Amino acid sequence: MRPPESKILGPEEFAALSHVSRETLARLKIHAEMLLDWNTRQNLVSEGSLADLWRRHFWDSAQLAPYVPMSAASLVDLGSGAGFPGLVIAEILRERPGLRVVLYEATAKKCRFLEAAATRLGLPVEVRQGRIEDAAPEIFDCITARACAPLAKLVVYAQRFWGRKSVGLFLKGQNVEVELTESHKSWRMELVRHQSRSDPSGVILEIRELHRVAAPNNRA
Questions:
Q1: Can you tell me the distance from the alpha carbon of 114 to that of 33, in angstroms, rounded to the nearest whole number?
Q2: Is pLDDT above 80 for 156?
């Protein structure tokens, strides 16, 4: 089920779509309130997206949660921004035993917001400030990203965290086919496309295999 594009999505409509509990919705409302407050001073997300905040950010992020494998013990979110999707996923899956969540973000002001929001929500996530390409390699069971980078660059970032059983969940927009064509020049991947439930032009890429394609030997 997808809400009509012409209808502004509110928190109650979000809860009906995502099936979150009343307690989870209450905490996500705190996240939303903090974002609206901080955004007046810090410009964490685009001003235009706030008119449909619950669709554009919360529902867009929450739809990834069901695809996080039940067996996953660790999740890394690349380019978390104001917590989308990583902090929202962490909140929705907060009762899942032993799930460790790490949020990577390069911008200091966004990291301060993530830390403040996580503390207020009582979420034991780890916020790491820095460029993803400078991160030390570390294997995670699940890797998520939204509006982080074009896919060809995103999979380069993701490879630093990829293990034999890792799963990537990447939100992509209307240019996904162009991005896939470019990515397939250098990467072989096993993927499933899921239609976005928040945006008719969007797609969720679920990637379960990721291997760099050997460069052709151009020597005579």
A1: 13
A2: yes
